[in-house]
Amino acid sequence: RRLKTLSRKGLPCEIQSFPRGSELINSLMIQLMDEFKNSGSNNVIHRGLFEVRFLTTLSGNAVIILIYHEAIDETWYEEAKKLSDRLQGVNIVGRSKKKKLVVGDEIIEEQLTVDGKVVKYYQTEGAFSQPNGKVCEKMIEWVLTHSNTLDNKSSDMLELYCGGGTFTAPLSR
User: Fold this and answer.
1) pLDDT digits over 93-141, tens only?
2) Phi and psi dihedrals of 129, rounded to 5?
3) Residue 148 DSSP code
4) Cα–Cα dist 167/130, whole Å
5) 165: buried, middle or exposed (CB in 10 Å: 19+, 13-18, 0-12)?
């Protein structure tokens, strides 16, 4: 149940959990590793796999992005559909050079509650999003609280990495 990544020295190191991520990311990491162990290294989903990314929402939607050094094809797609079914219908995106195959959706909607109001975001495969919705809600509330203390006539706030507008949308109200 360990994911491997490269250390700063370029050596493999194992990731057993991601405490800062959502519970769903951590659960999916374990389920995916179990799938890899049970399928063997010859399985088309496992073969040539280079990187795994996760998008999750507070409502339980998820996208698993599988990135490959080797080309993926229709055989991969059929196996990814089976994997999706075994993972309770999670969305799966496969990427290899100049090719993307999608099982389900590659965009999921996140609804965060900030100061008692619902803010909707769309998380897209390939774009950055906060890996823990509850923490993201607290971050936004902190920014809103501290932005209210600024002198609006002489102070500006600049969101340097705006991505999907995580902070800009609630600040614009």
Assistant:
1) 999 998 999 999 999 999 999 989 998 988 888 877 787 888 889 998 9
2) -150, 155
3) T
4) 11
5) middle
